[in-house]
Design brief:
single chain; 429 residues; alpha/beta; four-stranded antiparallel beta sheet; 16 strands; 22% strand; binds zinc ion
Length: 429
């Protein structure tokens, strides 16, 4: 059993309180879904922060609203309002921070129910954000509340935050909280992000991201005499062909030791986001050789590789092409860099969540890592907190899909796992 110094009676009382609150947990998730916090552009953030802040206050938290002052995306039309609640028990530390982003991606087409209706049917909560990740926010809040209703005074404290903009990088959300000192190793011991990664999986980090832009420069000439010019499009296609022939096979030979899902993403990957060059194809055409071409590439790198490997491979390729190609001119520009993160294997978070997941679900869980990224990067890279994982209700594959849903059973079970883990982590010292 995993209750640390708490009697199994305390754990049983908490589990009973979660079961008794099941209806409230579902209702709160539905209320959150009904606020259409669509990002972009970042609709109704202040309303959603207030709903979460009000609920936190009712559950005994001291609540602060923390708008991302000073950032260009924090505007009068679309304010970036974060909310953080704090509830201390018999001591302030250890402090466990439960963080959920409340922005959602646009609904898109293909829905058979109202994406912002907050509808429950056949044991499922439907709506944009149902799994990613308004159910997770409800699970965090009611995990803490079940402990309070069970009459347990923690030997530590709980922070719960609702933050903005995860879907667009999290810079006004978790990154801002960490940067401004609200979420750092100096004040926080453990962070759980209840993202939807399946209720039996603990997510221990993600790969790195290197987005870069390539620009080839040509020389304009009359299109009837292309031999007088240099085509930037020809040179870009040469580069992209060499990327396919030289880089992609080498990437397929590298494999990370991190448990990235799906397994195909255990290799580094490279995607061409877009290519533009010469004249706009839907404009009036004139006979000219293209004197410019640009492409944006998305290279996902492994923690074992590091950024310099990813950047070095394309820089070396451009040098080779330049040596072999007359009049070749190309620039490489960094667009976005996210370093990979990995929770230490010995983190008490992994042990506690794993044991409690086993207890609640009756089966053992597994570790996974994300092929993309999530707010873990900011917690660890800016906040300096190594003990961070993602664990929450909902099925990963349903995120961002039409008819997104979260099973009520998953929601209740994840709430239980998080509640028992709060008991363990605050009593572990
Ligand atoms: Zn999410």
């Amino acid at each position: 059993m995993s209750e640390g110094h708490f009697s199994s009676g305390a754990a049983d009382r908490v589990l009973a309180q979660v079961d008794a609150a099941a209806g409230e947990i579902v209702d709160f998730t539905c209320e959150l879904i009904r606020i259409p916090t669509v990002n972009p552009p970042g609709e109704a953030y202040a309303d959603c922060a207030e709903l979460i802040g009000g609920a936190l206050a009712q559950c005994g938290f001291d609540v602060r609203y923390l708008p991302a002052e000073g950032l260009p995306e924090h505007t009068a039309a679309h304010p970036r309002v974060n909310v953080v609640g704090r509830r201390s028990g018999r001591s302030d530390r250890p402090r466990v921070h439960l963080n959920g982003h409340f922005d959602v991606v646009p609904a898109g087409g293909g829905w058979t129910v109202d994406p912002f209706g907050g509808i429950v049917s056949d044991g499922r909560i439907y709506g944009r954000g149902a799994c990613d990740m308004k159910a997770g926010i409800a699970a965090a809040l009611f995990a803490a509340e079940a402990i309070r209703r069970a009459g347990i005074d923690l030997n530590g404290s709980i922070d719960i935050s609702g933050t903005v903009d995860e879907e667009s990088g999290g810079f006004a959300g978790v990154a801002w909280l960490a940067d401004r000192g609200h979420l750092t190793a100096g004040n926080t011991d453990y962070v759980i992000i209840p993202e939807p990664l399946n209720v039996d999986r603990i997510c221990v980090g993600h790969r790195g991201v290197y987005w870069y832009e390539l620009t080839t420069h040509g020389r304009i000439a009359h299109g009837s005499m292309p031999f007088h010019g240099v085509s930037a499009i020809d040179h870009m296609s040469l580069v992209l062909d060499r990327v396919r022939r030289d880089i992609l096979p080498a990437l397929a030979l590298k494999t990370t030791a991190m448990p990235v899902e799906p397994p195909e993403a255990r290799h580094p990957t490279l995607n061409i986001n877009g290519v533009q060059g010469g004249q706009p194809v839907d404009g009036i055409q004139t006979p000219c050789v293209a004197d410019w071409c640009r492409a944006v590439l998305d290279r996902r790198f492994l923690i074992e590789e590091g950024l310099e490997t990813a950047r070095g491979e394309i820089a070396a390729l451009l040098e080779r092409v330049a040596e072999e190609t007359l009049d070749f001119r190309c620039e490489l520009r960094d667009l976005m860099i996210v370093h990979p993160v990995r929770t230490p294997d010995e983190s008490p978070l992994i042990a506690a969540l794993g044991a409690n997941l086993q207890r609640v679900l009756g089966r053992s869980g597994s570790l996974i890592a994300s092929p993309g990224t999530y707010d873990h990067k900011h917690v660890t890279r800016i906040g300096g907190i190594a003990d961070c994982v993602a664990y929450g209700p909902g099925i990963l594959d349903l995120a961002h899909q039409p008819d997104e849903w979260c099973a009520v059973e998953d929601l209740v079970n994840a709430t239980k796992v998080i509640a028992l883990t709060l008991l363990d982590l605050t009593d572990s010292r």
